[in-house]
Amino acid sequence: MKIGTPKEIFDGEARVAMTPDSALQLQKLGYDCAIESGAGAAAGFSDALYEAAGVEVVKTAADLWATADIIAKVRQPDANELEHLTDAKTLISFFNPAANTEGMDAAKAKGANVIAMEMVPRISRAQKMDALSSMANIAGYRAVIEAGNNFGRFFTGQITAAGKVPPAKVLVVGAGVAGLAAIGTSTSLGAITLAFDVRPEVAEQVESMGAEFVYLDFEEEQQDGAATGGYASVSSPEFREAQLAKFRELAPEVDIVITTALIPNREAPELWTADMVAAMKPGSVIVDLAAEKGGNCKLTVMDEKIVTENGVTIVGYTDFPSRMAAQASSLYSTNIRHMMTDLTPEKDGQINHDMEDDVIRGATVTHKGEITFPPPPPKVAAIAAKPKETVPELTPEEKRAAEVAAFKAQTKNQVTLLAVGGALLLLVGLVAPASFMQHFIVFVLAVFVGFQVIWGVAHSLHTPLMAVTNAISSIIILGALMQIGSGSFLVILLAALSVFMTGINIFGGFLVTRRMLAMFQKS
Predict the structure, then answer these.
(1) What pLDDT is attached to residue 389?
(2) What is the pLDDT of residue 346?
(3) Which of 307, 316, 417, 490 has the most crowded Cβ, counting Cβ within 10 A?
(4) For residue 79, what is the enclosing H or E element?
(5) What is d(CA 80, CA 170) in angstroms, rounded to the nearest whole number?
(6) Which DSSP state fits 282?
(7) What residues contact residue 425 under an 8 Å CB cut-off, 6+ apart?
(8) Which of 74, 51, 71, 53 has the alpha carbon at shortest distance from 62?
(9) In the chain, which stretches have pLDDT less than 70?
(10) At what angle are helices 467-483 and 489-518 packed, to 10 degrees?
(11) Which of these is catalytic: 21, 231, 323, 483?
(12) How confident is the model at residue 354, as a pLDDT?
């Protein structure tokens, strides 16, 4: 079968769904590859690079649609492109099935199989095909670069001969894939980065990247992300009011705001209101990554950059991944290639559209003349976080009773062990000579004392570099010194070796410990 990629006809789209590298991998799966002439030029991939990778370069889109069995695209196809579909063709692209009933009806009428890349379920096995995350990652990074391009200062603070420059203060609203990418980029550029998300469990991720998580004095039980496809759930009106109040408090302080809050198949929630924009300092920048769905900022204009009366720049571009076309094309084509790997388990260049497979079924929106959207929940769901078990608070009487019971159990165990040990010693004494018993009892007592001493030392001190463990080692040297006056040459030799090796451990350990402690002294 032949997989082909036409040139994107969406205005301003520079990405391409097949790169020379991905074409080489697709050929290993048994497919022939074709691309429309000039399809990769805007992303920096010339026709010559495709030809060198063994890809057939087709002159027109009509020829490509006619000869290819599988069409890989980036943008949602328009009505003219859908006319080329047949019951023998498979289309793989972003398709927006929730708001594209006409497209699904057209694909159903043609009998074509359509795989929507934004419908790939967010389960562990499908991460390599998650095109939404790939593009969101680029969008978050590019949003910070775009903000820096419109911001009149450095991100990092500087002290120079010409004066002091304070660091920029960046607020990222939403800590999903795009938000985390923005946080990482902002902190790496030296800005003071704040981040907010309705899911408090992402606070650790935010803080691990060097940003400060913004908490609300408001508790609301949020649905686990595993049950909502990895997205945040809709918040209550009370939570929203507390959230807006916190943003109004932060608005005069921050220099750059990057909003990423978006729930699939919904209009973007309004999080940055007109009065917040008015409270911001002149020269501040807002980058709204939800502009395509109405925007998180009240004043955002889709696909435009505007400057408000008080000098705040609001960027509402919707083509951030396309502005980094080479990188975006590489990631997206890799997502397509992994999808094709799952569709071609035999690597024989033939599609096996297994509707029992969670990933393939979840991404398929039309199949064999039927609309299959929305898909059923995956059989293997993402692992939801276990609810925290609340440990009941014990009363003083219950605590005392538990301590008494633990003491009695410990005492019983110790008495039992001593009784068993004593009985064993008596049994050995019945048959062993007196000279043996004298040494054996000393050995047993030494083992008992050594065990009790070492067992009482904290785990962090179990190292020969620590003074307490060095003191424990002196038990060995005492035994060696007692035996060094023996009449046997072998015993004297062994005792001398014990003294020598234990001395190294003791004196060397104390010396290293002294040096370690000196590292923490000011003088």
Answers:
(1) 59
(2) 94
(3) 316
(4) helix 79-82
(5) 44
(6) T
(7) 440, 441, 444
(8) 71
(9) 218-234, 380-391, 450, 452-475, 521-523
(10) 160
(11) 231
(12) 94
| pLDDT for position 46 | 97
pTM of the model: 0.72
Selection from 185, 229, 224 nearest residue 201 by Cα: 224
User: Which residue reads 């008596």 in tokens?
Assistant: 426
- Residue at 408: amino acid letter: K
Q: Which secondary structure element, helix H or strand E, spans residue 72, and what is its range? A: strand 70-72
Q: Which of 22, 25, 93, 133 is catalytic?
A: 133
Neighbours of 129 (CB within 10 A): 25
> Please, which residues have CB within 8 angstroms of residue 119's CB and are 6 or more apart in sequence?
95, 97, 362, 363, 364, 365, 373, 375
Q: Catalytic pick from 46, 87, 105, 127? A: 127
Say which of 130, 197, 255, 357 is annotated catalytic.
Answer: 130
Three-class DSSP category at 375: coil
- H or E element at residue 154: none
What is the per-residue pLDDT for 239? 87
> Two tokens at 140?
């978050």
Q: How high is the pLDDT of residue 375?
A: 92
- At 39 the pLDDT is 97
Give dist(CA 491, CA 418) in Å, integer: 32
Predicted confidence at residue 335, as pLDDT, reads 97
Query: What's the pLDDT score for residue 173?
Result: 95
Tokens 């074509």 sit on residue: 112
DSSP 209-244: TT-EE---S---PPPPGGGGTTSPPPPPHHHHHHHH
- Tell me if residue 130 is catalytic: yes
- Is 410 among the residues known to form the active site? no
- Is 243 marked active-site? no
